[in-house]
Design a protein that fits this description.
Largest sheet: 5 strands, antiparallel
Number of helices: 10
Radius of gyration: 27 Å
Strand order of the largest sheet: 2-1-5-4-3
CATH architecture of the largest domain: 2-Layer Sandwich
Distance between the termini: 36 Å
Order of helices and strands: HEEHHHEEEHHEHEEHHEEHEE
Oligomer: single chain
Structural class: alpha+beta
Number of strands: 12
Shape: elongated
Helix content: 40-55%
CATH superfamily of the largest domain: Histidine kinase-like ATPase, C-terminal domain
CATH topology of the largest domain: Heat Shock Protein 90
Length: about 350
Amino acid sequence: MNGAALTNAERYKAFDLLATLVAVVRSDGIILFVNAAMEDALGMSRRIMVGAHFPDCFTQPEYLRTILKGVGGNDFSALRYDAALLRVNRDALPVHVIVTLNEGPEIIVELLPLEQQARQDREERLAEQALANKELIRNLAHEIKNPLGGIRGAAQLLEMELAPPDLHEYTQVIIHEADRLQSLVDRLLAPHRKAHVVGDVNIHEVCARVRSLIMAEFPQGLQVVQDYDSSIPEFRGDREQLIQALLNIAQNACQALCERIIQGDARITFRTRVARQITFGKQRYRLALELHVIDNGPGVPDAIKERIFYPLVSGRDGGSGLGLTLAQTFVQQHQGLIECDSLPGLTDFKLLIPLP
């Protein structure tokens, strides 16, 4: 029996690399193997589950029993349906079930948590949108850059030819606005110009640097709370990019907190934690950095909640709408992800970055 279990563990060990929940069962529902993700979801070890009756793990076991018999009898080779998975000391987990005939009597049952599936779909849309935005920005910025230089140069030459000094006011407007647009273009192109400089990064040194910059800008009326997990290891990354990403998010929070800063009760919290066995970007990671930037401001306006990472989208007058876009770009260059949950009085930007 131990030899058979070892053989199954060896045969199916690739399933442990998957983020989805996988069980290999016989047509009578007896479990031959479950992967690590299934163990985590059910709260039971593989040793206990092997040999148990898999349909009993569901709120409606009869449905899966019937399906397994049908697949085992070659009535059909695959089937999908939605169900609820029972878990130890937790609420039932809504899942999408995929039942597929493998070899001989073996049937593979794959479970996709519906919440996870929705999140993966959302992450995929965000990644595709970010890629499209990056290409659009880069192409647009290059197209704007050359004419701007010509406009500014022509305005300077025109100013030299204009005798009445009062007319210089108009050429100065042209020069000033050309410089402002040039600065905007430079910021758009910044992530694509600088090389990704990789070194050892201590995330708490990054947080300390950003905190000092924020406190220097807002010495009164703002409290910056540090809530750190000191066990987080160093990882390979671009320290300057991460400082800029975190600074952009923190400055965005400060701008939203302007009224509370005046009142003297504004608060930003930097919180670090280790996330274990987490899936994002269609990959499962054993460990990941979870960095939160939490503020007690008014929250992200509903009108832009779904678009806050788009370029040139800003919730305040005069904002460039580039801070969060650039933060997203820098974090994605670390194979990471930024998420935002916002309600009035509580906005939480969460950065996820894989750890070694």
